Amino acid sequence: MIxxxxxxxxxxxxxxVSVREAARRAGVSSGAxxxxxxxxxxxxxxxxxxxxxxxxxxxxxxxxxxRSKHPLARLLAIAEAYVNWVVQCPTLYRIVGDRTLIDFxxxxxxxxxxxxxxxAMSAMFEEARDRGMLRENDIxxxxxESRALAYGLARMHVDEHLREWxxxxxxxxxxMHAALRSYIISLAKDPDSLKAALxxx
Length: 201
Known about the structure:
This protein is about 70% helix and about 0% strand. It is mostly helical.
């Protein structure tokens, strides 16, 4: 049902998804799915939960591959994993972000997943501050700015606004990575040290 709902959303937009259509696509009787998804919101919340699980998996995998322990390098890795997920799963990105379609607060997978990412980022900012690695120590503002930048880039990609800046879809990932890298480096008291840490991979 979830995969069928994703397929409908990819073809016709999330607003066109219905429990009955997802059931038809999944090859199950029209009444049976309502025992699992009583409403369209229930189904779309389950789809969003799948999206969040994929995002968390992408972040965890990227951090696991990262050799550097520099907190700002780890922040950049989270941001890169996020935009990679958006490139790979634009439909899920739209659904997770559209709080009118889903019960975000009522889902531990969604609210807990988002809080987990925010907590991890906060810890990295705090470590960078405590180790004297930041040019400025207003970590709440910097955290907000970094999230806003990543979200804005993601939105520009899925809404196909990047082409207005001469960035083709084939270059979207690299362009977003470059913008995120530039911002994170601008936060560092010692940019050269951070650049060396980023070269570690």
